[in-house]
Automatic annotation (TrEMBL), chain A:
The lineage of its organism: Bacteria, Pseudomonadati, Pseudomonadota, Alphaproteobacteria, Rhodobacterales. The keyword Oxidoreductase applies. Keywords: Fatty acid biosynthesis, Fatty acid metabolism, Lipid biosynthesis, Lipid metabolism, NADP, Oxidoreductase. It is an enzyme of class 1 (oxidoreductase). This is 3-oxoacyl-[acyl-carrier-protein] reductase. Homotetramer. InterPro entries: 3oxo_ACP_reduc, KR_dom, NAD(P)-bd_dom_sf, Sc_DH/Rdtase_CS, SDR, SDR_fam. Pathway: Lipid metabolism; fatty acid biosynthesis. The gene is fabG.
From TrEMBL, chain B:
NCBIfam families: acyl_carrier (TIGR00517), PRK00982.1-2 (NF002148), PRK00982.1-3 (NF002149), PRK00982.1-4 (NF002150), PRK00982.1-5 (NF002151). Pathway: Glycolipid biosynthesis; KDO(2)-lipid A biosynthesis; Lipid metabolism; fatty acid biosynthesis. The keyword Lipid biosynthesis applies. It is found in: Cytoplasm. Its main location: cytoplasm. It comes from the Bacteria. This is Acyl carrier protein. PROSITE patterns: CARRIER, PHOSPHOPANTETHEINE. The modification O-(pantetheine 4'-phosphoryl)serine is found at S37. Belongs to the acyl carrier protein (ACP) family.
Length: 245, 77
């Protein structure tokens, strides 16, 4: 149903579980993908798996100059950036009363500031093309809060407010800016939890299970498609009913 | 100078869809030529491309009228 043939998509955090799946899904829909991430090896493995229409674009998002260079590198590799998926994110969990300025700053810098810089870097080309899709991967935690994650929750809620503001400004140019907010998703990170811990988490989820990376990727694909042209400034919550927002 | 003015005028006419004779020296993009704030960003982008120059954000903010643009580009290129 959703055809991205001829579109070029830049995905950050493509070495991770969710980002990798988003890249695969957009690629399967016909898009050329630029795979960005800090670790080169998993990116190259993914590019090899995808075959044609896949470019490896390593970038350390905590390095401002590298972030500024990424949209240009992506446009050079693919010809343009029509779709940007800001998926990369880090956590530095700590109870608020012990949270250091560095723990706060690192998370805000990578999750929120780099998203802002990448949006700025790609919108110029999208404005000219009169077509663009930005999908920012937020989190349920940005809406509900979570103990130990004041920094992460602030960065993810900040993404939502920023996305809405940019969405206002660029809507007349055929550019949409939306967020996907995952709940608990089964990835390598959650595999480490014990069955007991998983059981407790699942009890809080009306669907009774964790989500899959594919279910997040499907939401990103929709928001990146032509069919979602009239959807902008919204947050699509994909959380099994854990928070009905 | 006149060459710069002609090229700038052409971009403004094309981008904003206004009559050529409206694009006079004091014509403000927003107040007189119907541009919105994003149009002014796009105009600056078009000027950068046409003249092969880079216009930093703080300078771009001072380019409010046709005359401002011609003056800035003439001194920059």
């Amino acid at each position: 149903m959703f055809d991205l043939t001829g579109k070029n998509a830049l995905i950050t955090g493509a070495s991770g579980g969710i980002g990798g799946e988003i890249a695969k899904t957009l690629h399967a829909a016909g898009a050329t993908v630029g795979l960005s991430g800090t670790r080169v090896e998993p990116l190259e493995a993914l590019a090899a798996e995808l075959g044609e229409r896949a470019h490896v674009l390593p970038c350390n998002l905590s390095d401002g100059a590298a972030v500024d260079a990424l949209p240009k590198a992506a446009a050079e590799a693919m010809g343009s950036v029509d779709i940007l998926v800001n998926n990369a994110g880090i956590t530095r969990d700590q109870i608020f009363m012990r949270m250091s300025d560095d723990e706060w700053g690192d998370v805000i810098n990578v999750n929120l500031t780099s998203t802002m810089r990448l949006c700025k870097g790609v919108i110029r080309g999208m404005m000219k093309a009169r077509w663009g899709r930005i999908v920012n991967v937020s989190s349920i935690v940005g809406a509900t809060g979570n103990p130990g994650q004041a920094n992460y929750a602030a960065s993810k809620a900040g993404m939502v407010g920023m996305s809405k503001s940019i969405a206002y400004e660029v809507a007349s140019r055929g550019i949409t800016v939306n967020c996907v907010a995952p709940g608990f998703i089964a990835t390598a990170m959650t595999d480490k939890l014990t069955d007991d811990q998983k059981g407790k988490i699942n009890q809080q989820i009306p669907a009774g299970r964790m989500g899959t990376p594919e279910e997040i990727a499907a939401a990103a694909l929709y928001l990146a498609s032509d069919q979602a042209a009239y959807v902008t400034g919204t947050t699509l919550h994909v959380n099994g009913g854990m928070a009905m927002l | 100078m006149s060459d710069v003015a002609d090229r700038v005028r052409k971009i403004v006419v094309e981008h904003l869809g206004v009559e050529e004779d409206k694009v006079v020296e004091g014509a403000s993009f927003i107040d007189d030529l119907g541009a919105d704030s994003l149009d002014t960003v796009e105009l600056v982008m078009a000027f950068e491309e046409e003249f092969g120059i880079e216009i930093p954000d703080d300078a771009a903010e001072t380019i409010q009228s046709f005359g401002d643009a011609v003056k800035f580009i003439s001194s920059a290129s």
